[in-house]
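User: Let's play a game. I give you a shape written as tokens, and you guess the letters that built it. Ready? Here's round one.
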């Protein structure tokens, strides 16, 4: 079981979600976040939107998948989020020690679905 977190540009979210859906990855949590990376939060017109201050708008996608879905999830996120420009984002993958479905009490891979 793996936890995948991806920080991407907000305008790429629909592309990423569509590609995840095509790979049978449906359980996704999305949050609006702010941050900065190589662009160091420099204010500029970025993808048609004026960004101000030292933090830029981003979207964080969180997914927990069984091992056989790790590669397809990474491929979908990469393909959907990549523009080739600075600020495309990052994907982080970590191991999950345990997962418990609260409603049924299922544990492990069965709890993920």
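Assistant: Ready! My guess for every position:
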């Amino acid at each position: 079981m793996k936890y995948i977190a991806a920080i991407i540009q907000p305008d790429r979210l629909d592309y990423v979600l569509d590609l995840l859906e095509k790979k049978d990855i449906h359980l996704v949590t999305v949050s609006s976040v702010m941050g900065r990376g190589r662009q160091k939060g420099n204010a500029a017109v970025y993808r048609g939107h004026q960004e101000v201050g030292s933090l830029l708008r981003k979207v964080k996608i969180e997914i927990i998948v069984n091992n056989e879905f790790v590669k397809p999830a990474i491929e979908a996120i990469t393909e959907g989020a990549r523009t080739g420009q600075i600020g495309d984002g990052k994907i982080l993958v970590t191991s999950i020690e345990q997962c418990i479905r609260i409603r049924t009490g299922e544990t492990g891979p069965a709890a993920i679905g």
